[in-house]
Amino acid sequence: MRLLVTRPEPDNERTAEALRAKGHDVLLAPLLHIEPIADADLGAPPWAAIVLTSANGARAMSRHPRRAELMNLPVLTVGRSSAEAARAVGCADVLSADGDARDLARLAAARFAGSLAPLLYLAGEDRSGELAVPGCAVRTAVVYRAAKAERFPDEARDALLRGTIDGVLHFSQRSVEGFIECSRDLDERALAPTHYCLSKRSAEPLQRAGAKRIVVAEHPDEASLLALVLP
Prior knowledge:
Blueprint (H helix, E strand, L loop, with lengths): L1 E4 L5 H11 L3 E4 L3 E5 L12 E4 L2 H9 L3 H4 L4 E3 L2 H9 L5 E3 L4 H12 L6 E6 L13 E11 L5 H9 L4 E4 L2 H10 L11 E4 L2 H10 L4 E3 L5 H6 L4
Parallel strand pairs: 1-2, 1-9, 4-5, 4-7, 5-6, 7-8, 9-10, 10-11
Antiparallel strand pairs: 3-8
Helix pairs in contact: 2-4, 7-8
């Protein structure tokens, strides 16, 4: 199949490699550009641990002026990708919930309930909601933002116009919204391919726009999304 991957850099390259290894033709159209917030207010220590719902939080942490205060803390992540990103930037004590935000909250509660120090949630500016952990105080620090692309890359736009894209992989509701905004002048041609979505929530804008072929991953992680298109 010829697939369009809308995931932001640098994670889109890893996704493309996995798809190409299985014989798919892949075009990249990152519809979000991740920008770390250099002066993000972390508040005052101590913190019991860091919690991450995205690999972008780990990358933003590695660029923060107070990086040295954070690197030796335990890190709890929502899934494998964010855990790998945390390890890649130098965190040693990393544990993944291998699930969604609810699984992460349960993991954090099991390990840190009753802690006098809060958990430090390194979050994005646009997110589906706040992270609540039973028995724990959570300090949310917004450390990155996602800026929407204004248009498709030329090659991706031309392929959508010609109808040569078989499927589109979507990793977040915000990137789906960006896809639809960039598709305003493409009418039904942008909605015609099969749309593979990370979650039901991310699929909602496509449903409202009238897309007919939407497939949702069994679990909200990259492996489950790729399983929809890999043999």
